[in-house]
Specification:
alpha/beta; Rossmann fold; GMP Synthetase, Chain A, domain 3; 3 domains; 5-stranded parallel sheet; 21 helices; globular
């Protein structure tokens, strides 16, 4: 798409000035920003930033939840030819040091006092950071730090500068080109320092347009922007596609109100990583456990029907008349109210991405009438590589290549992609750029997969994570840890799982229980507990989790390729895996290698056949304090099953 973000915004403002562009819930009331109001705000912010010294090509950091004025700030920076760099708002202060120094950041716009405090804490380590503006002034009245000011003050400066230099904004926008750098996104840094992924206006908007045409998106769509803006998935859906389509983006009041806001807005276009869908399902199952026996029986009856025919109906396949009538009754009694409770009653298209979703979880949503589909992409590909067409959504694939995308497999089975949406480079890292981009324009995804007979892409796992079992009855069998972990996480009582087995004779796993779900389960049974560690070690909880693991093993036994990945032993960790402790990325992907090293004594104990193992672990609390948690963890054997051979 040969245009820029700001030009698209100005086109919407010119063509339909009074239409809603953004909504923000404040004090329980939805406040609307029209396209014309947004254009005026962007103009003044851009002039204010220019007056402060922001130049073309410089980076400006933006940190916070989705807020209209932060969105306007990113557009204002782009109007000047500067490059917005969104960072994760839940990151610890120390995590900002590398991006700020790497990108030579002098200007930052943040949401509130929390983010201001983080930047002030590390300011001495980031010598270039000269100016910080904040959106929400609460708690900041008495701050007297040099270079610290409110966005209101920046807007006021911008109005004055615009009056004195009335051609500045239009001239700067006119200088912009589709091939200019539009934004930079830092990767999660699972194996070292994060890398700055550089994208142009063209790469981001071309892929946004491809997704728009694929799903026939219009300006009438409603979107809820509740995920971190630093994640490119959120940025594409609530920024690039927002401008490509002109639909309405709604910003929740806070993280605590997202579920309520979701029901109020009733989005028509919805995007969430698998963990969000897992959390929704967990909340449903908790509520059903608390329901009266007749209601539980009705729910399970109709869910059994949905599992049998719901996905077929969603895919447009033939279903008998009696089943159709039966499903229609279920839609009135169960499925419709359930979609409404989840806030998905108006969804026309829903996508999940970021990591693989469990097949059972995926089928659950489609079976109750939610058009949930999978997509495949990454930060480096501007997200849209493969999308699932309506009526062709398969639980074990991630769709077909979108317009403009080419796919091929290397000799080792790694997926290579050529697309208009590829990154320009890794910032200041030519070696890393050369490792992923070939001379003829192919990008090394690092994923192992293949195209099935219907042209749909099937991802097995990260190429570096796919391993082989060595020794024992399953010597040489394939081991795909993510596949096993996702099957475990389908159960509402399991929040996270980490599977081990590469170059070992069998598979073992760490389990994190879902504290809310298991806590509710324990309370209904009169089982007392004093916190996460206590609950996780209860024999009754181990029995509950063992049953889940054995169900996964039974399912794996029916897959000849992965039957050897059945879990032989497991333990329930004494603490929740946490990004603040370095065990997960900010997008909640487990750092398997780091966990294996950190908890090496537990891994060794599982493979040595020990029944238990003591461990003490350092933890970091939300207020920055550190401490430790210790426990003697039980290690249990679980039942495995003979491989079910399919008839030839």
């Amino acid at each position: 798409m040969q245009t820029t973000f700001v030009r698209l915004m100005l086109e919407h403002a010119s063509r339909r000035p009074h239409a809603a562009a953004l909504r923000e819930k404040e004090y329980g009331i939805w406040q609307t920003t029209t396209w014309s109001q947004l254009a005026q705000q962007v103009r003044h912010l851009a002039c204010g930033l220019a007056a402060a010294g922001l130049k073309r090509g410089q980076h400006i950091v933006v940190i916070g939840d989705n807020r209209p004025r932060l969105t306007a700030t990113m557009l204002a920076a782009q109007a000047l030819g500067a490059v917005p760099v969104p960072l994760y708002q839940d990151a610890a202060a120390a995590e900002f040091v590398f991006p700020l120094n790497n990108a030579e950041v002098a200007f930052a716009v943040v949401e509130d006092q929390e983010q201001v405090d983080k930047l002030l804490e590390i300011r001495e380590q980031c010598a270039g950071l000269a100016r910080i503006w904040f959106d929400d002034p609460r708690g900041l009245r008495n701050y007297q730090e040099p270079g610290l000011a409110s966005l209101d003050a920046l807007l006021e400066d911008g109005r004055a500068h615009d009056h004195a230099h009335p051609r500045l904004f239009d001239d700067e926008v006119g200088r912009g080109h589709a091939d200019d750098v539009a934004a930079m996104f830092f990767t999660s840094g699972t194996t070292g320092n994060p890398k700055g992924v550089v994208h142009t206006h063209f790469s981001l908007l071309d892929r946004a347009a491809a997704g728009k045409h694929f799903d026939r998106l219009t300006e009438s769509e409603e979107v809820l922007a509740y995920l971190p803006p630093a994640w490119i998935g959120q940025n594409i859906f609530s920024f690039a596609q927002w401008l490509a389509c002109g639909y309405i983006v709604n910003c929740p009041e806070s993280a605590a109100t997202v579920s309520i806001d979701l029901k109020e807005i009733g989005p028509t276009y919805y995007f969430a990583p698998p963990r969000i869908f897992e959390g929704m399902l967990t909340s449903v199952m908790i509520r059903m456990e608390d329901a009266a026996r007749p209601k539980r029986a009705l729910f399970h009856h109709f869910m059994g029907l949905a599992k049998r025919v719901g996905t077929a109906l969603m895919d447009g396949k033939p279903v008998g008349l009696l089943d159709r009538l039966h499903y229609a009754i279920g839609n009135l009694a169960i499925y419709g109210p359930l979609r409404n409770t989840l806030g998905l009653s108006r969804v026309r298209v829903a996508y999940t991405a970021g990591e693989a979703i469990g097949p059972d979880l995926f089928s659950f949503y489609r079976s109750i009438g939610v058009n949930l589909k999978q997509l495949y992409g990454s930060t480096e590909t501007a997200v849209f590589v493969c999308l699932q067409p309506d009526h062709e959504a398969k639980a074990d694939t991630v769709g077909v290549p979108v317009d403009g995308v080419q796919i091929k497999l290397s000799d080792s089975g790694e997926l290579l992609v050529k697309s208009p949406g590829l990154l320009k480079e890794y910032y200041k890292n030519p070696q890393a750029t050369a490792e992923v981009l070939t001379a003829d324009g192919w990008y090394h995804t690092g994923d192992a997969g293949f195209l099935d007979a219907g042209g749909h892409l099937k991802i097995i796992d990260r190429a570096k994570d796919v391993g082989r079992l060595m020794g024992g009855a399953n010597d040489g069998a394939m081991f795909a840890p993510k596949y096993v972990e996702n099957k475990l996480k389908f159960f509402p009582h399991i929040k996270e799982a980490v599977a081990f087995g590469d170059k070992r004779d069998r598979v073992c796993a760490f389990i994190n229980i879902d504290f809310e779900a298991v806590g509710n389960w324990a309370e209904k049974r009169g089982l007392p507990y004093a916190g996460y560690t206590d609950l996780a070690g209860k024999p009754e909880v181990y029995a509950l989790i063992r049953d889940c693991v054995e169900q996964v093993n039974a399912d794996l036994a029916r897959d000849e390729l992965l039957a050897g990945s059945q879990i032989h032993r497991f333990l329930v960790l004494h603490k929740e895996l946490d990004a603040d402790d370095g065990e997960m990325t900010r997008t909640r992907k487990v750092k398997r290698g780091y966990i294996a090293d950190k908890y090496g004594v537990l891994v060794d104990a599982m493979y040595a056949g020990r029944p238990e193992q003591f461990i003490e672990t350092a933890v970091k609390f939300e207020d920055g304090r550190t401490g430790s948690v210790s426990a003697t963890l039980k290690i249990q054997d679980v039942k495995t099953f003979d491989t079910v051979r399919r008839a030839a």
